[in-house]
Amino acid sequence: MRSVEEHQRRVAELIRPPKSLPLRLDLALGRVLAEDVVAPIPLPTFDNSAMDGYAVRARDFAEASEERPVFLPVAADIPAGSVASVPLAPQSVHRIMTGACLPQGADAILPFESTDRGDEFVRAHAPTSPGAHIRRTGEDLELGGVALRAGVRLRAPQIGLLAALGFARAPVFTPVQVLVLSTGSELTAPGQPLAPGRIYESNAPMLAAAVEEIGGIAHQLRFVPDDVAELRARIDQALAELGEMDLVLTSGGVSAGEYEVVKQAFSGGEAEFGNVEFGKVEFVSVAMQPGKPQGCGFYRSGDGQSVPIVALPGNPVSAQVSFEVFLREPLAAAMGRPPQPRLRVPLAEPVLRSPSGKRQFLRAVLAEDRASVSPFGPPGSHFLRSMALSNCLVDIPADVVSLPEGAEVDVWDLS
Ligand code: AMP
Ligand code: MG
pTM, whole model, 2 decimals? Predict the structure, then answer.
């Protein structure tokens, strides 16, 4: 059997390196910045007023008080968005609105609150001091300064900063494009009546959601029956329609049964599906539970494209755990995202049995304070509800067969 670590390496090798492109800001939310962004203009871009009031020379108002107000003419009016046409002469003021450009000669703002708000003349009953209520050029970010570092995930404030700097686009890592396909003649679309012996299909929506959770784009190709020729034809058609995919992700059809369509379709027989030039798809047993049967390699489409393929087992819990173990990290890395940190947490209850020679991933619930972890639900890989009610996986090494309460374990936080 192949070790988990070895299969992780094989799968990671299939995933393309990160690529970037300048993306419109309205599409960039949640994406990771691929390059440092340098300020092409300072912020603030010019000295401006932080208050509605008057641009003044502070010394003209140094002595203003309730008892001895200062009375001066208003020589100009500067709304936001305009620039005063004349410099500020001594013994006069310019009326100025928040955000408007400070006129030459002014060194302070006298807010309306300190005045009678006069139009032609203003009476000030409080003093001001040099620099008061002025937003200085570059005090937030100087020209040429690093605005954001590569690797930052763009959220609302970062989008705002980029816009404030005048960028209509941002250089971000492009999403990986994944063709998610489910095989099985027993599968029925949710929302349809369920015939005897059929089940609702859950893997494709689940795996597509997993891809999208980390910022990828998933294209679902569902309900491919257990038929080798049709499976290939459907993938080829999808690739022709959608264009280049970074990964084909299948579930089901890889174990030891009679109708293992994925395995039959990709594991050779015909030279073009097993040839070394394009790599081949290998089907292996990985020493883990759940998720033992796995496949990975390159698929060569009818028109000669070579596309990485990862074939996961069909049981829903196996498929989802396999995604966590083999795909989450390399797909995230291809979009510039860091790996999820692992935790070390003591078990709230013992693990009585873990299979010898297999790494086990137990569905579990991490306490809110993250101080303990409890394995949850039965081990069978068809128990999807116990996966849905879990918030983490406990990773038990292959050589461990049981653990007492309180033993520290590796925890993969899925929340
Ligand atoms: P297989 O490996 O194809 O034999 O599938 C193993 C188990 O997983 C069977 O019980 C299948 O019905 C189930 N299964 C396979 N694919 C899906 C799917 N897309 N959605 C839900 N269950 C599936
Ligand atoms: Mg099947």
Answer: 0.89
